[in-house]
Amino acid sequence: MGSDSFQPIQGMSDIAAPDIYAWQRLEGIARDLLRRYAFTEVRTPVLERAAVFERSLGVATDVVQKEMYRFQDRGGRDLVLRPEGTAGVIRHLCGRAQEAHDARVYYLGPMFRSERPQAGRRRQFHQLGVEAIGAPRPAADAEIMALQVDLLRAWGLEGFQLQCNTRGAPGDHERVATELRARLTAQHDALCPDCRRRLQANPLRILDCKQETCRELVDALPPVTEWMDPAARTYLDEVVAILERLEIPVVRNPQLVRGLDYYVHTVWEITHPGLGAQDALSGGGRYTLTFGKQTMAGVGFAMGLERVLAALQSQGQQAADWAEAPQVWLVAQGQAAFDENLVLMQSLRMRGVACAMDLQGRSLKAQMRMANRSGCPYVVVRGDTEMEQGTFQLKHMADGTQRAVEMPELINTLCHPLAAAEQE
Ligand code: AMP
Questions:
Q1: Do the domain assignments include residue 400?
Q2: What share of the chain in percent tops pLDDT 90?
Q3: How far, in Å, is the centroid of ligand 1 from the Cα of 282?
């Protein structure tokens, strides 16, 4: 096997130290914040029936048409590696009809899209998403938008922008599509090949095409809200007014549509200038989804965690800054000290102190090198003299000081390092 065999397939990554420290930090902050907003986690399978996505995202959407990893299993079932989180979560909630009607859930995990890998576009990426089930109410939409901004701030992100728009009520969708077709059919030849296809199947998507020629045509169109019932505009006005009261900055963008068919009323996106061409950190909106006889209305968002990390990195945050070294490294000279350090290590761990030592019988010098490299704030050295006297050399790595201590002081310093530092 060549060295390529050790690489994951293109567009997917192993996540290990030091990057994993940044992931764990993001996840820890997010779980804490979501608890404060009264959300509970749901974990749905990564593999779903294809119909789960076709029915909910819309058969004409890019995700369903081009981006799903889809295959048949041995039983002939048509399966898909989930390309997004909402459809699976709503499938789950529809099966628990009564208790689901005011559910507040979040998910965090890998999503899969069969795209050509490029900066910011991966085949396996991770999303944190929330879904708040309930009928359309501007306050419900605003709460979720505020949660999302709160979360980005808690992670330390700055300079992002929240943009919003409305997709209108379900009754508005056909009128908007008809108006768009009427205006853009005359320009058919100037549209990019994707948008020519979208013109019949999903004309709204032309509004957020990134191709220059399509952009020029779109810029000349009136805002889509002109073709909607005035109630759609009133709804969005209320969402924006609530966000202003909550001091959440928001910008209206009449061309924002979002890619999936299930949206109604509010849609939004958060972008960050540190991300380059794929500058969307996150998208969200209000939706109505039907599975079998159950229909669920809700509002939610999905945030791409790789992009959040890239945005944090563009601000100078490094994954290695979040590494958590053990509190103490134990070093032994001789077999007797090694044997006693093993027991000490176990008892420290039981007291909640993170510690480590060499188990490969390395020399004193090599053990000290490991201790230095580990980044532990304390190193404990035990040699013949210490064994005879029943003491330990306790080295404080920040200032290089070292002194002989007995067991009670050792335990006290390692278990309560802050209190011990104050006493010194
Ligand atoms: P979407 O479900 O397409 O609205 O995506 C929601 C968020 O997930 C986006 O704003 C991105 O941050 C992230 N995302 C979507 N597709 C990818 C991808 N292929 N690679 C990395 N992140 C992605």
A1: yes
A2: 70
A3: 7
Residues 6+ apart with CB under 8 A from 267: 164, 165, 166, 167, 256, 257, 258, 283, 284, 285, 286
Which one of 290, 320, 350 terminates a domain?
320
Alpha carbon distance 153, 148 (integer Å)? 9
State the residue range of the domain holding 260: 3-171+229-320
**Is 350 inside a domain boundary?**
yes
pLDDT at res. 276 = 86
Nearest CA to ligand 1 atom 8: 304
Q: Mind listing the pLDDT tens digit for each residue in 229-281?
A: 999 999 999 999 999 999 999 999 988 987 667 889 999 999 999 998 888 99
Distance (Å) from CA 303 to ligand 1 centroid? 7
Which candidate, 325, 311, 313, 303, places its Cα nearest to that of 417?
325
- pTM for this structure? 0.89
Separation between Cα atoms, residue 135 and residue 14, nearest integer Å: 40
- Nearest-angstrom CA–CA distance, 105 and 39: 5
DSSP letter (8 states) at residue 12? -
